[in-house]
């Protein structure tokens, strides 16, 4: 278990320490459950009340909340960022040993960099290129001509189809499929004729791809996920999509093919995005919205009707169905008023 003095932790996360820095930190926990050897944080004001009974060694807080902390405080403008940096330092995730398991199947035409971890039953096909410090979890499949940069982490049971490209420092979580065929078919008098998908999937440096994500390869051009982008679990990204640098896409979102999303966007959970549209930089879409046309101005966008009581919802639906008739009546009244004028 990693341990560090409170003073060293404050320096690492960029916080100002209020209190004795010689105490040793051995972990992180919530305000409610932290003990005298653990650090906690306050990033959401609704948890302020838990500070009074908090037993943490120290609490990461903003300057505005510092007066609420009875004991030691790590003061910084963005406590959640401080928590993230502290968690990176005190992470308890096991570090795989740099070995190649004897059950792995590696084609003689593949290249493996130094200090790589290749887990049990991994398959690496011909002409695949694996960089230095890469970790590939058990049961993963690396297809023909796949390019994996340095310090990439691939969790167990990931599938990378042929010629998929991962830049340095990418993380891919379990059961994700990168480079599967896009949904490309031509209709021939009611029957579907498959269109081979000849593009690639290209994942930018430092991107984090969640579990059970599917990113389809391009039909002709590549499907591109930008630098530092984060994709949550169970997201579907169609062929030829482009996701900009540092954009975040939350779980169960579906993005249809040939859509372009800009940089520094945030797409909430369960969002549906139409194909062949563009979303500019700096757009924030709230959960369960449906985006059917391009967005050209940064800002916050929402759609959908929140759940309510069934009787109220049925009444609202009935009124919605009456809008066409109401519109016709209003137009007729406007026409009558125009004649009177």
From TrEMBL:
Keywords per UniProt: Acyltransferase, Lipid A biosynthesis, Lipid biosynthesis, Lipid metabolism, Repeat, Transferase
Pfam family, one: LpxD
Keyword presence, Heme: no
EC number(s) stated in the UniProt entry for this protein: 2.3.1.191
The protein's enzyme class: transferase
Acyltransferase is among the record's keywords: yes
Pathway: Bacterial outer membrane biogenesis; LPS lipid A biosynthesis
The UDP-3-O-[3-hydroxymyristoyl] glucosamine N-acyltransferase non-repeat region domain, residue ranges: 24-89
Gene3D superfamilies: 1.20.5.170, Hexapeptide repeat proteins, MurE/MurF, N-terminal domain
Catalytic activity: a UDP-3-O-[(3R)-3-hydroxyacyl]-alpha-D-glucosamine + a (3R)-hydroxyacyl-[ACP] = a UDP-2-N,3-O-bis[(3R)-3-hydroxyacyl]-alpha-D-glucosamine + holo-[ACP] + H(+)
GO biological process, one term: lipid A biosynthetic process
Active site, renumbered: 239 (proton acceptor)
Record-level GO cellular component terms: membrane
One function term, GO molecular function aspect: N-acyltransferase activity
General function of this protein: Catalyzes the N-acylation of UDP-3-O-acylglucosamine using 3-hydroxyacyl-ACP as the acyl donor. Is involved in the biosynthesis of lipid A, a phosphorylated glycolipid that anchors the lipopolysaccharide to the outer membrane of the cell.
Subunit structure: Homotrimer.
Name of the protein in its database record: UDP-3-O-acylglucosamine N-acyltransferase
Upper classification of the organism: Bacteria, Pseudomonadati, Pseudomonadota, Gammaproteobacteria, Alteromonadales
């Amino acid at each position: 278990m990693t341990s560090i003095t409170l003073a060293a932790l404050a320096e690492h996360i960029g916080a100002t320490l209020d209190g004795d820095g010689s105490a040793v930190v051995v972990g992180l926990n919530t305000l409610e459950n932290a003990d005298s050897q653990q650090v906690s944080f306050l990033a959401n004001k609704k948890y302020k009340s838990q500070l009074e009974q908090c037993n943490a060694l120290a609490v990461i807080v903003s300057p505005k909340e510092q007066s609420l902390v009875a004991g030691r405080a790590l003061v910084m403008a963005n406590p959640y960022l401080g928590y993230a940096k502290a968690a990176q330092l005190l992470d308890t995730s096991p570090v795989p040993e740099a070995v190649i398991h004897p059950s792995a199947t590696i084609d003689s035409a593949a290249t493996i960099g130094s200090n790589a971890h290749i887990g049990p039953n991994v398959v690496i096909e011909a002409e695949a290129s694996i960089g230095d410090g890469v970790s590939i979890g058990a049961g993963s499949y690396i297809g023909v001509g796949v390019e994996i940069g340095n310090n990439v982490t691939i969790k167990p049971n990931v599938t990378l189809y042929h010629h998929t490209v991962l830049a340095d420092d990418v993380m891919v979580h379990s059961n994700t499929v990168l480079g599967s065929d896009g949904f490309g078919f031509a209709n021939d008098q009611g029957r579907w004729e498959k269109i081979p998908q000849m593009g690639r999937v290209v994942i930018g440096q430092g991107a984090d791809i969640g579990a059970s994500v599917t990113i389809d390869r391009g039909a002709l051009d590549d499907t591109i996920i930008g630098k530092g982008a984060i994709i949550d679990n169970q997201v579907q990204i169609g062929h030829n999509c482009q996701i900009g640098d540092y954009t975040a896409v939350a779980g169960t979102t579906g993005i249809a093919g040939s859509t372009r999303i800009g940089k520094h966007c945030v797409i909430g959970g369960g969002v549906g995005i139409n194909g062949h549209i563009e979303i500019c930089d700096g757009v924030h879409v709230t959960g369960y919205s449906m985006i059917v046309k391009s967005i050209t101005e940064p800002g916050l966008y929402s759609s959908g009707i929140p759940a309510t009581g069934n009787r109220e919802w049925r009444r609202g639906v009935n009124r919605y169905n009456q809008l066409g008739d109401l519109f016709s009546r209003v137009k007729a009244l406007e026409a009558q008023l125009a004649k009177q004028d």
